[in-house]
Amino acid sequence: MSAALALMLPACAGGERRAATPSAPRPIPPGAAPGAPAILEKRTNKVTLCAEETSQPGDFWRAVSPGCGSWMCKKCKTRRGYDLRKRLQGKAHLFAEPRLYTITVNREWHESPEAAYVDVTQAKFLARLLTKELGVRRWVWVLEPQAESGDGWPHWHILMDVSDLPGKWYSRELKEAREEEPEDKKGWQFIPHFFDLNRVHRLLRKWKVGEQCRLTVKKEDFASAAHAINYITKYLVKMPERGYPSWMLKRPGIRFVQASRALGPVVSGARREKGQEGGKEAKPRLRKANRQPVKRIAECGTRVAFIQYDGRRDRQVIAGPFKALKNTVVASPGAVIVPDFDFETKREFPTVGFASIIDVWRFESIWKTPELQQELAAGIAARETALLGAWASAGDG
Question: Looking at residue 212, what is its pLDDT?
């Protein structure tokens, strides 16, 4: 809890935490308009809350802190990464003949790392290469910034299924592939599910993408499709040691993962891009699409919402979110702690909130004070600066 908040919360709460117990509706807090009706309505962004209707015995308003959802956010990345890994593991059976493939751009062909990302993604070169040119129906790629390059040049890791590709005879010496069996087999090798690397390299050079590519086919490199899925998603689960380069943090709408249409959606709430194998254009959310990721990440965890299950209406009621810090709820007037249970981990954990909507409103009014809002804004600005400097600082070290 900040020093400013400690001063704002006098002996009315005393930092004391209490168990959730039924409580009668509390008086309307100071600041209500003169002549306010008996049922004071306060409109949030989700629902109109009425004091007498919502302050019922046994009510509990659970405090939650919405995340920013960015793949570059330490808080949100792990949760999203494991969720994506779980979704892909459910599709592991679709990778009958898995292969891992990596593509690195040629830096001489692009003005900057950001320009390279734009050149490759806007022209949809990866989808064109895999699906249209080579006939690979099931694939998923993950974006990684190359730490050793200094500037974070884009690098794509691709997991694909080549079981639909026909087998061919191939000569390493001639660099030639054919479907018919050669009369003289010396120097020729039959490769089932042939992935034409020579054609791939020609296309990548033609499109001015890059030339540093590697196909992993040996079984010892990955024991199964499930193993390959774990490998490719590690870039979405763990934060890079250096963080992310400034060009990625400043560019809205960076795509860190994409799957083919045949594989189906792998990211929760994902929409298809226009031109991707018949997909329709998605309407971007302006709040996210037009904001720099670094600003969203810096603000992650600086809002608090309160959720209550309304049995009479059989729905979740949400108050907020408010600009505040969740860890200050426990020291606020009327705070309670109740046990909760995670059915996935089979573990019990404490959750904090309020037993009355009046206490929720009081919490909001405390955080509306200029002192706390200024302190919150200063913390956000400091975090933004630290995020932008992390990549360069780690490189210097």
Answer: 66
